[in-house]
Structures are given as C-alpha cells and as structure tokens.
Design goal:
heterodimer, A: mainly alpha, 2 domains, globular, B: mainly alpha, two-stranded antiparallel sheet, 2 strands, about 5% strand
Chain lengths: ~300, ~290
C-alpha cells in the first residue's frame, strides 16, 4: 500500500513535463521550492516544537547572498552557491545561539525580531541590496554545461534537489538523533534527566533547518532571477508557518507541497479557508497532545 | 540644536502613539498570557474606520470618531475572543497561529474593502496651527497626542490600581488559578480585558491617523513596535509599557534620523537582548 502511494507520487512528479504547458511546469517548480522550504520549517515546528516566525530569513539570506555574489562581485554560480549556503548556515548557527536562550513565545518573538532586522537591512541598505527595487537581471546556473533556462530543465533540476532534500530530511528525522529530537519536544526534562542535552539537540536541528532554508532560497532566486525584501518579511515567514500548521501531514514530514496551488485563489479567500483549517488542526492537535500526555504518569510529566 | 529639539519632540509624540498601541497589548499579554498578534490589525481597523467616517461626515469630531471606532473595534475583538480564542486555552502555539491568521484576514479584507491607496485622516481644524515650543515651531496635534497618551495612562492606572475590577485583573495577572479559586470570574475578565485592549488600540488607531494615515501594511508596521515596547517594558506592566513606549519612540526617531540604514537593527537589538538576558523586561514580574 505504501509503495503504491510512493509510485503515485513519483508518477505525478515525473509525468508533468511530458504533456503539461509551461505555465504548469513553472507552477510545479514553485511547488517544489515551497516544499523544500516547508519541510525545513517543519523540522523546527513539527519535530522540534520550536515555532519560528523568522524562517524566511534563511530563504531570503541565501537568495540575497547568491544574487549579490553573482551580480555584484562577479563570482561564478558554483562558488556563489557554496558561499551562500555556508553563510546562511553560519547565520543560522549564530541566530540559534540567541534564539534558543528562550523557548515558546520568547523563541517566537526573538526569531521574529531577528527576521525583522534582516528585512530592515535589505530594505534600507539600498547601496548594497538596492532596497525596495530589489536585485534584478540575475541568471540561472548551468551545472555541467546544461542550461536551466527552459521551464522543463529547471523543473528537473528542482525535482532532483527537492528529492535529495526530502531524503536527507527524512533520514535526519528517522535517525536516532531524530528520535531524541522528538523526545526533547515532548519531554525536555525527562530527556535531560536521561543524559541528553536538549539545548544542543535543538540547536543542531535549528542549524540544519536553516541550511535547507538556504537551499530553498538558492532555488528561489534561480527560479525568479529576481529578489526583493518582501521575501525576507515576517509575512512570508508567517505564511509558511500557517501553511505548515494547517496541513494534515504535519509531524510526518510529507505533504504541504500542494499548498502553492492555492495561488489560483484570491488571497482573502485563501486566508479565510486556511484560517478555518488551521484552527481545526491546531485545536485538534492540542486535544491529541493532551490525551497523549494524560497517558503518562502524572508526576513524571515534563 | 534645532535638530535635537525637533527630533526630541517627535520621539515624544511617537512614544505617545506607541503607548496607545501597546498598553492594550500589554494588558492582554499580562492577564491572558496571549501574544495577541491581531493587535496591529485592530489598530489599523481603527484608522480605516476613522478615515471613512471623517470623509463621509465632513467635520466629524476626531474624539467622537475615536470613541466610536474604539467601541466598534472592541466589539470585533470581543467576538473574536469569545468565538475563537476561548477554544484555545493553554495552547500558546494555537493562539499565536490563530491571532496571526486573523490579522492576515483583517488586513486583506481591509485591502479588498478600502483599496491599496493610503487614505489620509484629516487633522482636526482647531489643532492644525503649529505651536511654538522653546522657540521652535511644532505641530500642535503631535503634542496633543502625548497628552492623550498621558491621560490614557492615568485612566488605566486608576482603573487597575484603584477599582475593584482592577484588583481582580491584578489578581488574574499574578496568579490565575488562585484568582479562580477565590471566585473571580477569570473567563469573563479575559473577554473584558480583550475588549478593552482592542478598544484602546482602535481608538489609538484613530488618533494616530492624522500622523500615519491609513494604508495597507499599517498593521505589520505597528505590531512589531508593540511587541518591542511590551517586551522591553515588561509584560503586563502598565508603567513598563509607558516607559518602554517613550524609550522606543526615542530610539526609533533618532535611529531613523541618524542612521537610516541601521534603523531596524537599532530598534530590534534591545528587544533581542532583553528576551535573551532579562526575560521579565525592565518592569515586569512575569517572564515570557
């Protein structure tokens, strides 16, 4: 049964380029990029229990670094990609040290503030980032001499990266480390008593999620060939978070990709619909969680 | 010299505006442990209500508009709290997501209803002429704004420190379960405080209208400021919100004037350090 599902998903991902028009192929590429981004946020929110309101920072910084390095400093795409991913990951490591001093609402507000700082920088430092005009006129890379300019070739590229990302994140979550992460999410005190280091586990996850956020940012900037401060804004972080919360596959790692299809709906409708669903999911998730907690011995609750 | 005095007065008036925005936020946060991310949207609703009302009824008094918008926004907030938030007790993640979603709905509905152009709110005619302060000319309305903030602070102080209702609210802030145990109807109190906070934000939106004007994205501009003020001042502390508002008003005005490129860093760094190293804020008793 599971394999039929996998075959169906694989089929629906491999078939579109054969018959769909450019519009749908481009839409599918965007879905893949959004999926990598949502998966990385889900590592934090779903598996780590860390609600971040600043995840767009990594997408935005990855994209901005690549855009600046290629367009302004004349780097090649390979070196620029490497540098921007390293840079984004380093930034996530630093942000993690600050943000993980708090948990819950405090964590949420620090990540929000950090992302506002970056947004403000992108918006105001117009001599570096070109401010509200954004950086236009970017190019797509040509790995191994294959041009990615056509919608189909970009789709294959995005599909390869997204598959790799999915496998890597699934491995991360199903590893022993992933189990300890879930343990820290549900029972931090017990985990600490068992000799785990909850802070370090959270921090590593935070950095790993930042890394994949940076990868999504690279694809994002390759796809659009343009970058604007809005991609760093709280609104885009929050939209990602709301998408993440209202999808049924939360905590399981898959799902979320079809959300980009909602582009076809007017935004108010999307928000209204999404609001209803997320409210439902969140209130139900809470019910499940409280039931699960009650199953434990009351004194040992973390 | 002129620069410092004018910017100083500007930061005072921004501080007054921020207090009108964040005092309700702080009350709600303190009593309900709820980061109400809809607060910026409530503020924006107030501004839009005022812009529309003052356009359709020429010469409508701004104080009447503020009162009306305050009541209307309080009603919206009360409905939201009763119908939605009560179902999410003790679920901070859910509350954050739901209030955030609600703010998106409100701001997009405003965009749909009022369009994307900014709508100016007229300054009341009798306050249009400038005042001379220390030999410098300064808009009277901005000074009146500071007066409004101080008046609101005094009223709230008496409400919270000197009335029976205020005593119940304070009891709820300090120890919610104990307050419930001695018979204080904490759930009704939540609705009341939520209405009060939303109402102050709505009225503040009206009063801020002549300075800011109503535009899409006003909510997203104001919400982080409210967050910073409350975090800096301390959650649930009226004095903290008051002092925090003026501190942030000064930092923001001078930051934008002196280092326009780094304004946001200067603004958010104190907040980050406060959360990381002094979670209860400058005057707060409860941590985040």
């Amino acid at each position: 049964m599971k394999w039929i599902g996998v075959a169906l998903v694989a089929g629906s991902l491999l078939l579109p380029p054969l018959f769909a028009g450019d519009f749908y192929i481009n839409l599918a590429s965007q879905i893949l990029i959004a999926a990598i981004f949502a998966l990385s946020l889900n590592l934090l929110v779903g598996f780590g229990g860390m609600t971040s309101l600043g995840h767009a920072s990594y997408l935005g910084v990855g994209a901005y670094m690549s855009a600046l390095l290629t367009s302004r400093y004349g780097f090649g795409h390979g070196a620029a990609a490497l540098l921007s991913i390293v840079g984004t990951t380093a930034m996530a490591a630093f942000f993690g040290v600050i943000a993980l001093r708090a948990s819950g609402l405090g964590f949420l507000m620090i990540t929000l503030a950090l992302s506002q700082v970056l947004w403000g920088l992108a918006y105001r430092m117009s001599n570096v980032t070109n401010g509200d005009n954004g950086i236009a006129g970017l190019t797509r890379p040509a790995p191994f001499g294959i041009s990615l300019d056509s919608p189909i070739s970009f789709y294959w590229f995005a599909l390869i990266v997204a598959t790799f990302a999915l496998v890597m994140m699934a491995t991360f979550v199903s590893s022993a480390f992933g189990s300890s992460l879930k343990g820290v999410r549900d029972q931090p005190r017990r985990m600490a008593a068992l000799g785990f280091n909850p802070w370090l586990i959270r921090w590593i996850t935070f950095v790993y999620a930042g890394f994949w956020g940076g990868v999504a940012g690279l694809l994002y900037v390759y796809y659009h060939k343009y970058i604007h401060p809005t991609s760093l804004s709280t609104t885009s972080s929050a939209e990602a978070l709301l998408r993440d919360a209202r999808r049924p596959g939360r905590r399981r790692g898959i799902g979320g990709a079809p959300e980009k299809l909602r582009l076809c709906l007017p935004r108010t409708l999307e928000y209204a619909a999404g609001f209803g669903v997320s409210f439902h999911c969140v209130s139900n998730a809470d019910r499940h969680r409280s039931r699960r907690k009650q199953a434990h011995h009351p004194i040992a609750r973390g | 010299m002129q620069f410092w005095i004018i910017q100083g007065l500007n930061s005072l008036s921004l501080g007054g505006l921020l207090f009108l925005l964040s005092s309700g936020f702080s009350l709600i946060f303190g009593l309900m442990r709820l980061a109400n991310l809809t607060h910026g949207a409530f503020f924006m609703l107030g501004t839009y209500f005022a812009a529309t009302a003052m356009r359709s009824y020429d010469g409508l008094n701004i104080w009447v508009a503020a009162l009306g918008a305050g009541i209307a926004v309080a009603a919206v907030g009360g409905l939201f709290e009763r119908l939605v938030l009560t179902r999410l007790k003790a679920n901070p993640l859910g509350q954050v997501l739901v209030t955030l979603g609600m703010s998106f709905i409100i701001s997009d509905a405003c965009l749909m209803f009022w369009g994307g152009d900014s709508i100016p709110v007229p300054t009341p005619p009798n306050l249009q002429s400038p005042t001379r302060v220390l030999g410098f000319v300064f808009p009277t309305y901005r000074l009146v704004l500071v007066g409004c903030a101080i008046a609101t602070a005094i009223l709230l102080y008496f409400l919270i420190e000197r009335t029976r209702l205020g005593a119940m609210i304070r009891a709820g802030v300090d120890d919610r379960q104990m307050a419930r145990a001695v018979g204080i109807p904490v759930s009704n109190l939540f609705t009341l405080v939520f209405c009060l906070g939303a109402g102050i934000a709505g009225a503040g939106g009206v009063l801020g209208g002549p300075v800011l004007s109503a535009y899409p994205g006003l909510d997203a501009d104001m919400l982080p400021l409210a967050l910073i003020v409350v975090i800096l001042g301390g959650i649930g502390s009226l004095l903290g919100a008051f002092i925090g508002s003026f501190i942030i008003g000064i930092i923001y005005t001078f930051g934008t004037a002196l280092f326009p490129e780094l304004a946001y860093i200067i603004l958010f760094l104190p907040m980050i350090f406060v959360i990381a190293f002094r979670p209860q804020g400058l005057f707060g008793r409860v941590g985040t």
